[in-house]
Amino acid sequence: MQLRIGWLYGHEMNIYGDRGNVMALARRGEWRGLETTVVTIGLGDPIDVDEIDLYFWGGGQDREQIAVSRDLQGEKGAALRVAVEDGAPVLAVCGGYQLLGHSYHPHEGDDLPGISAIDVTSEAGHERFIGNVVVDTDEFDTLVGFENHSGKTHLGSGVTPLGRVRVGRGNNGTDGTEGARYRNVVGCYLHGALLPKNPHLADWLIERALERRYGDVTLASLDSTLERRAHDGVVARAAALQR
Amino acid sequence: MTRTIDPRLLLATTTSKALTVGIRRLGRGGGTALPGLVAGYLDPRMLDKLAQRLPLGTVVVAGTNGKTTTSRMLAGMLAESGHRVAHNRSGSNLVRGISAALAEQMRAFGSGGPEIGVIESDENALPEILRRTSPRVVVLLNLFRDQLDRYGELETIASRWREALRTLDSSTTLVVNADDPTLAALAADSPATVVAFGLTEATATLAALPHASDAAACRICESPLQYHALFLSHLGHWHCPSCGAERPELLLAASSIRLNGMRGLTMDIEDRRGPEATVAGDLEVALPGLYNAYNALAATAAARVLGLEFEPISRALSSFEAAFGRLERVTYRGRTLTLALSKNPVGFNEILRMITGEPLQMPLVIAINDLDADGRDVSWLWDVDFEVLAEPQHEAAWFIAAGLRGHDLAVRLKYGGIASERINDASCGRPLGEVLDEVIDATPKGSDVFMLLTYTALLQLRQALADRGVVEEFWAQ
Q1: Residues of B whose CB is below 8 A from A128
Q2: pTM, full prediction
Q3: Got the DSSP string for A226-237?
Q4: If contacts are CB pairs under 8 Å, which of residues 398-427 in chain B contact chain A?
Q5: B247-298 pLDDT, tens per residue?
Q6: Model confidence over B222-238: pLDDT tens digits?
Q7: What value of ipTM does the predicted structure carry?
Q8: Beta bridge partners of B60
Q9: Which one of A120, B117, B283, B399 is most buried, counting C-beta atoms within 10 A?
C-alpha cells in the first residue's frame, strides 16, 4: 500500500518545527510497511489531487504568506478545495489553517484571500499568544502543542471546533475554542511539532488517507511509549507553568 | 575626556559594585543582572555615561550565534596589544547586565581605568544599546532562528536592526558578515562605514542548503538565492540570478581553513582594506569547528579596524580559552567531559557535525530545558538534523535524554531514525548532577563524554560541577 504525503509550501511555510509533522506521518507510514513518499508542493508547482493521499500545511512568516496566498488563487486553490470536499485528510497549522479559510485581515495592507475550503476567517490581533497548549477534544482525546500566533480565527457555521483549550489561548483568545474540524480537515494553532506528541492524531490522518484509496483498513499498532511520555510531559509541564 | 565627578553616576556605580560583591558572597549567583537593574533606577543614563568615559570608545558585538566567543576573542586581542578593556565577559547581555559589568570594571574617577569597551549585545536589545553607547564599531555576526517564542519572527529582529542601523552615521564602522544575505542587505541600507568579511574557502562547503537555513530568498526581489559555495546554514558565497544582487566584496577574507577535529583550526586571513592586501597565514584558533572560523574572522576584522597588528591577534587566538560551556572541556573522575551549549538549530547542527567526525563510542547526553532563558518553545528540536546520529558508524553510542523537556528530545531522536532501545529517557526532569554521576559510573575511565545542553541546563550542570569542585563558578572565569 502507498501513502503519498503532499507537503504544502514546505520551503515557504515551515516554522516552529513544522517538518516534525511530516516526519511523524512518513515514519509512522514506513514503520507499518507502507510505501511512503513525501512530495513538497511549492510556489508555482501544480497540485495533482489524484497523486496525493494526505496533505500537511504549516505556518509561515508574513512575507511568505503573501506569496502563498497569491499562488493559490485560481486553479491551484480550486484543486485543493476539490481534494478537501472529496475527503482528503488535511492537517493545517497556523498560517496554513488561516489560508485554508476565507481570508486573513492584516493590520495594514489588503486582506489576504484564502481558498475558502473551510468556513473560518482570520484577522491580525494585537496580542501574541505564546505558550504550551492542552486541548480537550471529543474525537482525539487530549491534544498538546505550543502556540505562537497573533492571528485570531473565528469559526463559521460550516465547521466545528477541534476542541476546547484547557491550557492556552486557542483560536482567538476569547471563546475558548481551538482549531476547526470539517470533513477530514484538521486546522489548528498547535505547533511544536504536533503529530510526534499526538501519535493518535497522526494515525487518524494516515487511516483516513488509506481508507480513501483502499477502502476499509486497520492500521497495525506501533509502540508509542516515548511519544505518550512526551505527550503526558507537555500536559504536566503546561500545568506546572500555569501555577 | 570628562573626569568630573557625577554624584548620581557615582552612587549608581558604587551601588552596582556593592550588590555584585554582596550577591556573590551570599552565593546567590553571578550578580550579573540585579545590580544593573538597581543602578538603572539610581541613574537611568548610567550606561550612556560609562560608555562616554571610555577614551577609545566601544565595540558592540551582536548576532544569534557566536557573540560570547567573538567578543571574548576581541577583548583578548585588545588585551594582547596592551589595551585595558571593559567587557561583559559573563555573557549577561541585556542593558542591565552590561551596565553592571561596566560599573564593576570602571573607576568612578582617577586614571588607570579601562580604555575601550567590548560589549556583547542581545539581539533584541541591540537598538537600545546602539543608542546608548554610540559605538565606534559594530560587529554583526549572523541572524538565525533562535527563541522564536521570545522574539517573534526572524523578520521582526531584522526590521528592528534595520531601523537601528539606519540611525548610525559614517563615524561608526559596521563589521558585517557578508556571507549572511540578510545582514549584507541591512548593512547596505545603513549610512555607517561598512567592512564586509566572509570566507573564500571552497573545501568546507555544504552539499545543500540545510534544513535550518533562514535566508533562502533574495531580500530585494524575493527570488530563490543561488550559492557558489555554502559554508554553514545559509552563510555562503551567494548571488541572486534574478536581480543580480550578490555578496559584497570582502574586505577581510578567510581562506585555507583546516579543521583539526576537536583540537582547533587554522586559517589564513587577508586584510584587503588598503591598496595592498596584508595577509596573516596559518593563524591558529584554539577552538574547533567552522563556526569558530567565522568568530575568529569577525574578531580579527574588528581588531584590524581598530588598528591592531596581526601579531597580538594571532597570540590571542592561539591561546583562547572557551567561555563556559562553549565546548569547554573538563576532567571529572578520570573522564573528559565536553560541555557544549546547544540552544538553536544552527548551533546544534554545527556541534553535531563536529562530534560526529569520528565514530561516537560513549553516551551522548542531551539536556533540553524550556525555562525563560532557554525559550519556552522546544519545537526547534525538529529543525535540528539529528539524523547524523543514526548513521551506522555511531552504533556503539547511546543517548541520554535529560532536562525538563527530555521526553520531547527522545521522540525527536526516535523519528530521526535511532532505535528506541538506544534512547534512555529515564533521566528526564531529574537534577543534572545526579544524571552526570550515573553517566560517569556507566562509562570507563579515560573516556570522552559529550554533553549538549540548553542554557539553563548548562548552568545547572556547571553548578553541579562547581559543587563537586571541578570548575569555577562561571562569573569567576
Answers
A1: 152
A2: 0.78
A3: HHHHHHHHHHHH
A4: 404-405, 407-408, 410-412, 414-415, 420, 423, 425
A5: 999 999 999 999 887 778 999 999 999 999 999 999 999 888 888 999 999 9
A6: 888 888 888 888 899 99
A7: 0.96
A8: B119, B138
A9: B117
